[in-house]
Amino acid sequence: MDFGVSTLSRGVFVTREAYLETAKAAERAGFGFMAVNDHVIVPASLGSAYPYTQGGQWAAAEHGHCFDQLATLGFLSGCTSRLRLLSSIMVVPHRPAIQTAKMLATIDVLSGGRLILGVGSGWMKEEFGLLGAPFEDRGRATDEYIEAFKELWTKDRPAYSGRHVNFADVIFAPKPVQKPYPPIWVGGESPAALRRTIKLGDCWYPGNNSQTKPLDTPARLGAAIAHLHGKAEAAGRDPASVDVCLLIQNPFDWTAQKIADGSARRLFTGSSADMAADAAALEAVGVRHVAMRLGGSSLQEALEHIDRFGREVIGRA
Fold it and tell me: Strand 166-167 relative to strand 160-161: parallel, antiparallel, unpaired?
């Protein structure tokens, strides 16, 4: 099992030192990747409902602190040597397509080919409005941007014509180190996310706490993966070519907790043996990667959690 540390640009992860120490600890502990979330600007008045909490509350709404995701990944590329770097997820229509393709290619080159591009179409209407991005047509814009990225990253004379992206007669260099391009992990649990995964992605990247389709047990996730595989076959794609990563949206913790309906233990809570068993159960239904949300009341406690998880869980998973 390939584990990653999933960080939020708020709480204990809002300083240079915190990101540096977290990255160093994750490399020492044997994590395979480090993820950074994405928001550019937070509106003072928020009406959009966050899709991963009961009631739709979003924890960052009050203070609005958020590092830029791509700048943070660029920073991490310079202070790590082994960790792969995941955008988790990048809201694709938030930034101009060509500029974003350039920034992503630069991160991949400067990191020596360690970028993973996690993508999604976003949920916060007010943020789209502030950025001048197309909220109502964000699904089509997301698809066009991804197609344009691939064109720019793989063609000597790239050209693209769409509703939201248009270019021709350009030279785009340098290309990403990874060939044909960095792996694309498609976030979300909706039918549109599954379609996008099959059409444009290398990996399906759902969260476990969706309010519309919780994937909070191995059995529920296994059924969702089987559904994805059926859709892939119907579209003429080999299901084995679609990787799966699960984002655990509650911090891993050595105190056992229950899922929302009370029917089972929450994944990656309880003893280290319980967590290793969770990893084995997820692997059995087709999950190859797990992004672990980091908790702790202080940076020191968070670092201790990383170290302990590496010793007691990664070491036996």
Answer: antiparallel
